[in-house]
Amino acid sequence: MTPVRIVLILATTSFSLQPIGFCQLIRPNYVYRNLISGIHDHFNNTCILLLHATVDPLTSPDGIRTRNAVRLLNLQRYFSQERHTRTAIMDLATFTSKVGIDYFRIKRPLFVILNDQGDIRQLLTNQISTWITMAYPTWIMFLSEGTEPAEFFKGMNIPFDCEFMVSNNVGQTEVITEVYRVSPGDVLRTSNFAIWTPEGGVRITGLQGLYQRRADLFGKTLWVTSIQNPPMSTILNDEHGEMIGIGGMFGRILDILEDNMNCSFRYVEGKAWGVLSPNGTWNGMIALLIDKVADLAASELVLTSTRINAVDFTIPIISSRFHTYIKRPSSLFISWKGYTAPFATSIWLALGSLIILSSVVITVTEYVGHRYDVNRYGDSPRPRLGSTVLAVFGAFCGQGMLASVLPTTRAAHLTVHLTSVILIAAYSAALISFLAVQTFTMPFTTMEGLLRDGTYRFGVTPNSAEYSLFSNTTDPVLRALFEERMVPDEQLPITYIEGLHTVCREDGYGFMITDTMVGALENQVDCALEALETMLQTSLAMAVAKNSPYRGIIDANILMMRDGGILNRIIESEWPTKFSKAEESWTSVKFGDVLPLVIVLAGGIILGVFVACAERAVVGRLHCNLVPRGGRPTKFEPSALSKYTPESDRLSKPKINVVSVSNK
User: Fold this and answer.
1) Strands 318-327 and 536-544
2) At a CB cut-off of 8 Å and minimum separation 6, what does 209 contact?
3) Taking a C-beta distance cutoff of 8 angstroms, is the pair 487, 511 a contact?
4) Which of 199, 554, 611, 638 gets the most CB atoms within 10 Å of its CB?
């Protein structure tokens, strides 16, 4: 139902002349017009409802009824046509019975009670003031001369957060006063709000903000519930085990609220955060708020749709995200890519091309030198491209090359060595970084991956928003996780720190928690935690009972703490300082990091042994072929060669007589 339609219903219901005639206007129309317009403009209301009482027609002459009806219609016509504000007329009894809670669809309404006569007080006391939604609209009521607010509102509850104003006539001036009670049964509090004069109109005399005007609870006692969940909240007990306070971050916040609001807190311990049971009942701190046992739940409650329907939340204290955390995998793995990753593919291709090009240049240069400068080279063997390629490749691996007699070739050698030094330095630096920095591979990064893995279990804290997320979800993955992979309820960790300890203690265990809590608790666990992808973006806030009159003043003080930087200082002081795990000043290279090199070395050894065995077998077969069947070994037999000595070689050589011939 739209607001326009609601106002039309109100107008249609109220525009019969007989009910309009029963109302009484106790101020001139110009006073009503100007004063109501000033209040409407100050609060920026979207519509106006003119409310009156139902008076027995026998108590007023017909002429007065008719004249009042015309005046009221003119007043309604003024706001509707000249002020362009939706306006309706209705008696209070009809409003409560026919409209009811549908007026929630009217945004920022202004309710104007035109007089204090007839059954107005009875209707306000027995019907209107009993509504827990009385603070929703803005109220202005015109009192007759001599009516005292304290006497008129005796026994009537005007909630602390209700903007209810009464206007008293003092000569040509209307004095507008706010009235409220800190709690039902408390004394009626009044404060000056504004004055109206024909010349100056409405002039605000008090402070502009509601909770600037109502910053004092006058010692009101509020009941606070919390849960043991350090460092957010810590239960403080006396020697008898009774809860006497809250420590941690929320304890610091409560201390400031208690001083700023001039109130006192008493405490009742909550056994859980609170979830909705299948039978429709709540437990934990949410149940304490619903049952009015507590006024405020001072803990990091997650805003969920089901909780919002049951209680109200303050403005968020912290924004956070839900993750499932697992222990960082510690298994070794082989990474071949790390040995080629220091250079891009284009650099490797350029390097190979450079080796081949340099080898060709050196080979050609040496070949030309051999051919055209025989005296310089003598009987040295001519260069071959294959040998030169191996020599250049060795230079790029940090090995030397045989010196050349040609200056041109030496210049090429120098260029190759300079290039190799730079490349080796760059490659070595990147390879050392790869070996020194510990790397790991996540088995999965999503909850769907956890489900497919099949070896992991996971848990959440019981009676929490996380538990409700899985138990009430319609998502097939989350439903399957809840039914197949979540640990039994009796094995769920009671606190966040217990859940993180379970992650470190057990292999294949995940725990769902906000990153804010992990940041506060990560220094208390003895393993490295890794987060899966974000499950949910959420806000953490305190909660109050539904339609609590103290939610606004609490929000106003939290905003002041946030704007003044106090909230950040509290979080930083109560949060443990983040530091890295105790680590050595250097990181040792593990066997798994160099395993590819070990595999290459072992492969080379095995290949060398295989080649040696193959050569041995080939040499043995040649030996068999050189020995004639049934004969002696030839002179090429190894056994015959083994009998060779230098002396026998000298004796076996033929003597050559050198004849000196002289040329005479």
Assistant:
1) antiparallel
2) 556
3) no
4) 554
Query: Nearest CA to 554 among 298, 233, 186, 234?
Result: 298
What gap in Å lies between CA 202 and CA 293, rounded to an integer?
Answer: 43
Angle at Cα 310 formed by Cα 305 and Cα 314, nearest 5°?
Answer: 80
pLDDT at 335 over 70: no
The DSSP code for 481 is: I
- pLDDT surpassing 80 at residue 633: no
Q: Nearest-CA neighbor of 14 among 79, 101, 85, 98?
A: 98
The CA distance from 271 to 294, in Å, is: 13
Nearest-10 Cα torsion for 6, 7, 13, 16: -170
SS3 592: helix
Q: How far apart are CA 271 and CA 243, in angstroms?
A: 12
Architecture of domain 3-213: 3-Layer(aba) Sandwich (3.40)
pTM over 0.90: no
CA-wise closest residue to 264 among 299, 295, 301, 241:
295
DSSP per residue, 600-612: HHHHHHHHHHHHH
Structural domain spans, the chain: 3-213, 337-436, 595-620
pLDDT (tens digit, 9 = 90+) per residue, 456-477?
Answer: 998 999 988 889 888 888 889 8
